[in-house]
Amino acid sequence: MIELETFECPIDQILIGDRARKSEVSDTRLEELAASISEHGLIHAILVELQEPLEELNGYHLVAGYNRIQAFSRLGLTHIPARLCTDADPDEVLAIELVENLQRSDMTWQDQARATVRLHDLKPDQTLEKTCQLLGITSTASLSKILTVGRALDGPNAERLSLASGITAAYNSIGRDTDRAIAVEMETMLAPNTQIELDFGAIERTTVENLFEEKSFHLESDSGVQVTNVPKPAAPSFSILQTDFVQWIRDYKGPKFNFLHCDFPYGIGWDKARKGQATVDVKAEINQYEDSWSTYVTLIASLTEHWPRIMLPSSHLLFWLSADHDIRVETRNMLEGGLAAHGINLEFDSFDLMWHKSDGKGIIPNPSRQGRRTYEVALFGSTGERPIVKPVEISYACPTAGQDRLHVSEKPESMLRHFFSLTVDATTRVLDPTCGSGTSIRAALHHRAAFGLGLELNSETAITAQRELDRAITLQSLST
Question: Would you give the end-to-end CA distance of the chain in angstroms?
Fold first, then answer.
């Protein structure tokens, strides 16, 4: 029970617990509060309860009003108007504290959402209307949105949601997640010849596994922690296959994908860049796809011909290509036209994704006539109605891998993580037909995709890519 009458409570006899201090505001806000009290007096008395077992010492425990006490102290006042809580139900006291915290002007939206959930869940029979009345929220729909976000902040996507600009943005993100999950379930059920097991195919897979004979390995985490004798993880949901994409796609009968990351070889000009060089600073050049227009066309034709075999109706495509205008137009025509033959509408964003190489590395095809090309672009498109995960920036700056790269056209994992955050989450099934060193599959793993498969023609590169993927899987399992 909370008494209606107020009394002048000595500030030095009030015990302030850690929970009450959580309502602390900034110095500026505190100065404003002190000025208001000095001019108008205290409008709302603080709430205290007798402190047990110190009743004989007239000790009090603060229930609500920490900032008002701080403002009184700044004004040099020793007593503050208070109302006494007697025999208060612990849930009632907690509700008062939560309501006061929720009235703070500097409370983050994340804390606001969590505190609202805690307040609403105090009583099993609490209704939306009662909570709205407590908090002064005008509609149950608004409260329902806050509760949805607050509960999701303790869920599997909490880290990503907490980066949203506010409750509305977080709620919209949850809606997209729900739509994506439902679409995957429905399309998987309706898709013909879809196996439940993650059987990506056995083409040359045993060859890679036999060559990769290490039973354990040494690794170092991002924080520098040394870990040795870690057993090679078994993660069939993330794999690198050593195979030819053109052959693999003809025979594939496994689960369908909904995110395709393509980096087909052509138009970057590596052959021109290597002319005249005594050495080449890449670790695997043998048995690669030829950097030629005919190979490029063949790979795209194979992709579009067999698209319905490997992709769900609602999917995303991220396709790296030359920034050359003619090549870009022709590539779009081949992709859009090839899928149109199946009655599939592939819609590209009119703005490309752009990776700026912040270390200034790039190709100079003709030093006497052209500048250095220090950026690469990718088409971003979709089929069906699959929404994105979140609207991140479509440009990203980071250095190239330099001499540490494992593949001639390796894309930095940090850059792929950024662009993958557009569309990769726990409902995403990732395929990279020419994955090289496997940074795309590791980026998919980072975003905890449902599964990811990379194909690589070169056996040595495939072995290295699988080894790096296994290390990433192990580090992720150690961090969770």
Answer: 45
Q: What are phi and psi of 270, to 5 degrees?
A: -65, -35
- Burial of 225 (C-beta count, 10 Å sphere; 0-12/13-18/19+): exposed
Which of left, alpha, beta for 116 (phi over 0: left; psi -120 to 50: alpha)?
A: alpha
CB 396 within 8 A of CB 413: no
- Is the pLDDT at 273 greater than 50, yes or no? no
Q: Give the distance from CA 315 to its chain's centroid.
A: 18
Phi and psi, residue 105, nearest 5°: -75, -20
The answer to pTM > 0.70 is no
Q: How far apart are CA 71 and CA 384, in angstroms?
A: 58
pLDDT tens across 12-71, in order?
A: 888 887 766 665 667 887 888 888 888 878 877 888 888 766 555 558 888 878 888 998
Characterize the bridge pairing of strands 46-50 and 60-64: antiparallel
410 backbone φψ class: left, alpha, beta (φ>0; ψ -120 to 50): beta
What is d(CA 399, CA 357) in angstroms, rounded to the nearest whole number?
5
Residue 357 in contact with residue 410, Cβ under 8 Å? Answer: no
Asked which of 159-168, 173-182, 191-200 is least confident by mean pLDDT, the reply is 191-200
> What is the chain's percent helix, strand, coil content, to nearest 5?
40, 20, 40
- For the segment 229-254, what is each residue's pLDDT rounded down to a tens digit? 444 444 458 999 999 999 999 999 88
All structural domains of the chain, each given as residue ranges with its CATH number in brackets, are: 2-174 (3.90.1530.10), 198-479 (3.40.50.150)
pLDDT of 42:
82
Annotate 233-250 with b (16+ C-beta within 10 A) or e (fewer).
eebeebbbbbbbbbebbe
Whether the link from the prior residue into 53 is cis, omega within 30° of 0, is yes
User: Torsions phi, psi of 119, nearest 5?
Assistant: -65, -45
Q: For residue 112, give both structure tokens.
A: 């606001």
Of 269-278, 407-416, 424-433, minimum mean pLDDT range: 269-278
CA distance 80 to 66: 11
d(Cα 66, Cα 24) in Å, to the nearest integer?
7
Of the CA atoms within 13 Å of residue 247, those in its CB half-sphere come to 11
Confidence at 188, pLDDT banded by 50, 70, 90? low
> Considering only CA atoms, which of 70, 78, 139, 76 is closest in space to residue 104?
70
- Which residues lie closer than 8 Å to 392 by C-beta, 6 or more apart? 418, 419, 421, 422
